[in-house]
Automatic annotation (TrEMBL):
Region (Disordered): 1-24
InterPro entries linked: AraC_XylS_family_regulators (IPR050204), Homeodomain-like_sf (IPR009057), HTH_AraC (IPR018060)
Domain HTH araC/xylS-type: 161-260
Keywords, ordered alphabetically: DNA-binding, Transcription, Transcription regulation
Protein name: AraC family transcriptional regulator
Taxonomic lineage from the root: Bacteria, Bacillati, Actinomycetota, Actinomycetes, Mycobacteriales
Family matches, as Gene3D superfamilies: Homeodomain-like
Compositional bias ranges of the Low complexity kind: 9-20
Origin species: Nocardia fusca
Length: 274
């Protein structure tokens, strides 16, 4: 019996990705380079789970180099897609607060959007053509030589990056302490300032950032323990709270996702900044 695509076991892009940390000279602006190999099983849809980062993505095809560098903004909800040919990608993750200095726009201008790198006003746009031709092992050395000298960052932008890094580290260390008041206290800023920092520097509110972080924790640990233990470990009040939040961001319940039930697949198309 043929299993309908909507019932096939879920595969997330994160599970197939290998990562290389950015060298120290790039870490103010980039955290890592991810490499997703070409998918040859066209029947199995990929789940693009929510993320709270901005990425420069270079799609790769078998027998060809990278093509048309794209920028993917923070994704507030999951999407699902299938490939019609062997297609992999390289993902350069920007550090919190680095979107402005690197791309020339606020992270909130890119939320839930896909745009061409060359169309953005920041210094990285001038590197798009060369990035498209580089192998994965050439990307970080190339950026080490070119990117830092192009960036002009104000003291305020550097301060915001430092504050956001502290906030992200706080949430990562203790998901139960990632409330807006707790994060504002850790950064010694007002709750309003914290929200503005997250909106401009990460692209989502601190509350939504925490929601995404918790769902990703559940996905990473699914199958290793009971749902109630996963809920507690991810910082939810209880299993019902986890299920409601998971459904809100993933479109289905945790159990249904693991069983292979998903939303319909949607195409990923670049859009223009307006």
């Amino acid at each position: 019996m043929t299993i309908p695509p909507a019932q096939l076991p879920s595969v997330t892009t994160d599970l197939t990705e290998t990562t290389t940390p950015a060298p120290p000279s790039l870490r103010p602006w980039l955290t890592e380079l991810g490499r997703i190999p070409a998918n040859r099983n066209f029947a199995v849809p990929f789940a693009h789970i929510p993320w709270a980062t901005t990425m420069i993505v270079l799609r790769t095809e078998q027998g060809h180099g990278s093509r048309d560098p794209l920028v993917l903004g923070p994704r507030t909800r999951a999407s699902y897609a299938t490939a019609d040919k062997p297609l992999g990608c390289l993902r350069l993750r920007l550090a919190p607060g680095a979107t402005g200095p690197v791309l020339g726009v606020g992270a909130d201008d890119l939320t839930d959007r896909v745009v061409r790198l060359a169309e953005l006003p920041g210094p990285a746009a001038g590197l798009a053509a060369e990035l498209a031709e580089l192998r994965h092992d050439e990307l970080l050395p190339y950026l080490e030589k070119r990117l830092p000298r192009r960036i002009r960052e104000s003291p305020t932008q550097r301060l915001h990056r430092t504050l956001l890094r502290t906030a992200v580290d706080t949430v990562s260390a203790d998901p139960t302490g990632g409330t807006v008041p707790a994060l504002a206290g850790a950064l010694a800023v007002s709750e309003r300032q914290l929200r503005n920092l997250f909106t401009a520097g990460i692209g989502v509110s601190p509350k939504h950032y925490t929601r995404i972080d918790r769902v990703r924790r559940v996905l990473a640990a699914a199958g290793t323990s009971s749902w109630s233990h996963l809920a507690a470990g991810a910082g939810y009040y209880d299993q019902s709270h986890m299920s409601a939040e998971f459904r809100s961001l993933m479109g289905v319940s945790p159990r249904s996702f693991v069983d292979g039930t998903r939303l319909p697949v949607l195409p990923c198309r670049p859009s223009r900044l307006g």
